[in-house]
Amino acid sequence: MPTKSLLLLWGAACSLLTAQAQSGCTDATACNYQAGVLSDDGSCLYPFPGTACDCEFNWFEEAELLGGETTSFALEGQGIITSFTLNVEWENSDGDASQAADMVWTLTSPGGACWSGGGGGCALGAEWPAEWASTSSAGYQIIAEVPTGIAGSGTWTIDVTNSFAGSAGAVYVFDVNFSGFCEGAVTVTSGCTDPAACNFDPNATTDDGSCAVIDACGVCGGDGTTCLEMAGCTYPSACNYLAEATSDDGSCDFVTCLPLEVYGCTYAGACNFNADATSDDGTCEYLSCAPVETAGCTYPEATNYDLAATVDDGSCVGLGGVNPCPSDLNSDGAVSTADLLMFLVDFGTNCG
Fold it and tell me: What's the pTM value of the predicted model, to 2 decimals?
């Protein structure tokens, strides 16, 4: 089928085009550089990290829509679209009063900026060429120049609407070539995205708030104090080490922060053990806290039983000739291993 084309120059009238030519992007490295403008208006747009201004992408899709129906398509990528060529093979499915110009075609960036053809209410856009007001199934084309550029990174959408409510149906086969669009999933890299910052990261796609400026001392992100002269102790091992000091003043002190020496008895078993002592002074003694032995009668049945006695001295009386503890061979008031040893010494002796 024959292809009808139109080169669409942005603007509604020659006077508007003339006014727009007075200002725009004058930086030749920007993606939306405008060679004919007289002054820069701050509108320059630059490639996203990892991309270039001259990315090209061809989009192919098709749709069949009844009157009033809309369908949407998603594109993943990033870039600054400064122009595109829209080709559509349009078919009047039922041969009714539907026209190619009934199509509303809208491109929307991830940030919400949009371009629409045939209506749609975007700030950027155009009416279809007069040749599109046709019921004939054919190929139609429009070349759209967008000098200011449409920028974005992420998911873009294309919405297609058959705006003729009485249409019994139309088929759209699209072949669109975008200049400045780089297809593919977007990699998010955090960093400083301000080119004027001293720590600008050209690979960052998301600003993380880390942008910094050079301080009075020439340090990126510094606080302006690193170049100030400050005397003090510069030895880290000293008691009075000063981290901020830039020159040593000989004041370093290595003594006052040492632990204090405490002398005393350091043996835990001694009567005078000192838990705070760091150095033993030889004063440990073990007698003052030892138990005192007291001799006396340790048998409660005896008339002279001594409650304070700790060692039986054999002096018990009043037991009526009965030994209350016959196995206490050594008379210490208790039957113990010592009594057993005495027994074993005499064990086996013939007493006859």
Answer: 0.51
